[in-house]
Amino acid sequence: MNFFFQSILKNKNTTFILISALCISLFSWVDNFRFDASSETLVLEDDLSYELYEQINERFSSSEFLVIALSNDDIFSNVSLANLRNLEAELEQVVNVANVISVLDAPLFEQPKLSLVKSATNDKYLLIDDLDLNSAKQELIESPLFNELIVNNSGTAVAMQINLDDAEDYDTTVKQIRNILNKEINFKSYLAGPAMIASDTISFIKNDVLIFGCLTFLMFFVLLVVFFKDFWSAFIIMSNASLVIYLTISLLGYFDWPISIVSSNFLALLFISSVAVSVHMIVKLREGRANNLADEESLAKIFIPCLYTALTTMVGFLSLLLSNIQPVIDFGKMMAVGVVVNLIVSFVFIPVLIGFKGIAKSSEFSLSKIYYRHLYSNTKKVFKTIGIPAIFLLLPVFIYLSLGLKVENRFIDYFDESTEIHQGMKFIDEELGGTTPIDLVFTLPEEEILIDEDDFFFSEDSETSQYWWRQKNMRLLKSIQADLNQMPELGKDLSIVNGVLLAEKLNDFTEMGDLELAFVRNSLLTNEKAKDLLASYISADDRSARITFRIIDSFENINRNVLLEKIDSYLQTKLDNTNVEYQLSGLGVLYNNLLQSLFGSQITSLVFVFGAIFLMLLLLFKSLLTSLIVLFIPLIAVGFVFSFMSIFSIPLDIMTITIASISVGMSVDYAIHIAWRFREEQKISKRDAEINTIHTSGQAVLITAMTVIIGFLVFVFSNFNPTVLFGLLSALAIFISAALALRLIPIFLESK
């Protein structure tokens, strides 16, 4: 390796030109780098529920929607209603908007009260002249169809449900709607819905990457200058990290691997990894300068431990490929590529910069000396007699607590209470029936549908009898909808039942027979607005009917998995003696499947990674005991972090799943460097091995850990709660990893 580094140092100008040319040539690839907030990033690989979700969207119209809640002091005045009409017309022009349903589109049947037959030709709406608006408001509030769909129980707020066309990305749609609402001065508005959650999540992530990424970068630079007391050393580290990020982003753009919600912390993790490698290299080079060692010799000595830390880190992230969650798989691939880029770039680019201008020798008054004198040596005896046994005793406790880790969260908890989306979701949950949909689809097996041209329910535009428009079957749907409506986690329900209940209200609350149901169906098909709405809840062949429930995401004790299990159990019992098939679908189901797979996926990945790392440690150290000692550090680190999450009810979700990778990666990194250097120092002097290790590799670990911890605590100021948790948990994971490596490794190896 000496020859390789010597060649780079001698040919620094040529190497620098080649690196610069490479950066310029890859610029177009950088332009392809993108974020992806589509629903595909929140589903399992080969998830049958997702296939069903797609099939249902093809069978019915798209289930994607947004909800706008609007309120003012007098929402049902002529002026307010006219403003609503203008707003509705403007929203219908937005890209990907299929249609808009609002209180203005709700037909009125009691102004004066109409019979069921006359209601079919009714064209009375809120904006007609000489209408008693107070009576109209009361009618809508009492309507089984429109209550909590477009008007709240008190009549102080109305909603517009914006049904969306099927699309991969609704980011542009959400932005256009927001721009329209921001210009609206007549109403206080709230916006929510699945499409907005995805869009805002990515927006918050982008903002955090830009704002907090820049702040963290500057903080890292300042801290490195303080710790090294050398501007040039800090510049080298940060320049190398920037180049690693740039080249990795270029490769992601080339492979068209977008950043999803799961992999949103990718850049931060890669940055940490790059800083860690660079710090170890700089510390070794400064040490070599102090001992009159040639730079190429110093680089060759640090290469082996850096190579193995890179390999173990890569194995850790490649273990994520065992997951069946596609975004998690993509994240593993991204980090593996990033680790390779980091290793190559660091051992090429840093020697080039060193060749241009050398670095200072090690500072006499180093951070490691402070640590050794005031903390390490004074607590060594106590730690050996009490601390180590306590850690071993705590290990089963950590395992037990980790098993209690929650796999559940609420979308609303992603966002700070001060944010628009949090306030919107809470308001709509409380006043207008919730935001996150789950679908129940009921289907008659095709072979049991009888076609009879003499049947009253047979029509020329349909090849089947109107199965769901029969009294006995409508009773079944009514019963199911009424029973499930009693669950507090479920808000507004919507299906053809709501229209039928409205018709029965006009029919003096008399249950409709087959003839009347057929009349209602045909009446609905003659009205374009009603026809569009109907298409979302019953298939074109009338075989399948859909009931959509909105989950109250702000419900304090919500557990999606338990909720879905209750619904499934109820339906099994309810439909046991019928020929009706049922399916649960919707984004709520897809996301729950993802969450429930996370814990099992995490356990599988960790078992694999610990096994693979152990084999690699055996190759590196050629000692079973040393390998076990090094492996013990990430085991305790992961257990501690998982226990912390369990105690403080921090759920394992698509955002916090990366914390285990951080804990394993950083703790193995620190442990390998400390163990490797301790063994090398023992060959020279067993008496001084401990102190020399702390003053060399220990200093690199201390600088890296303190820099990263302080830098990542900046993220606690984000309005996006997953970013806050990422910052806090990352800081905790790195603190524990560094503390364990610095404290335990020398003690264990000394007594070996």
Q: Count of DSSP E strands?
A: 8
When the domains are counted, the total is 4
Instruction: Identify the CATH architecture of the largest domain.
Output: Up-down Bundle
The secondary-structure class comes to alpha+beta
Q: Determine the number of helices (DSSP H or I, runs of at least 4 residues).
A: 26
User: Beta-sheet strand percentage?
Assistant: 5-15%
Helix content: 55-70%
Here the CATH topology of the largest domain equals Multidrug efflux transporter AcrB transmembrane fold
Low-confidence stretches: 448-464
Q: Main β-sheet: number of strands, strand sense, barrel status? A: 4 strands, antiparallel
State the name of the first-level CATH class of the largest domain: Mainly Alpha
CATH superfamily of the largest domain: Multidrug efflux transporter AcrB transmembrane domain
| Distance between the first and last residues' Cα | 31 Å
Q: Can you describe this structure?
A:
With 752 residues, this protein is α+β, with helices and mostly antiparallel strands. It has helices at 2-10, 12-25, 27-31, 48-59, 78-91, 116-119, 133-142, 171-183, 194-228, 231-255, 266-290, 295-318, 326-356, 367-403, 420-431, 471-484, 496-506, 514-525, 528-534, 560-574, 587-621, 624-647, 658-684, 689-695, 697-712, 721-750; strands at 65-71, 97-101, 157-164, 188-192, 436-443, 490-494, 544-551, 581-585. It folds into 4 domains: 1-59 and 229-363, Multidrug efflux transporter AcrB transmembrane fold (Up-down Bundle); 60-198, Multidrug efflux transporter AcrB pore domain like (Alpha-Beta Plaits); 365-403 and 623-752, Up-down Bundle (Multidrug efflux transporter AcrB transmembrane fold); 423-591, no CATH class. It contains 26 helices and 8 strands. The strands form 2 sheets. The chain has a 4-stranded antiparallel beta sheet with strand order 2-3-1-4. Strands 6-7-5-8 form a 4-stranded antiparallel beta sheet, with helices on both faces.
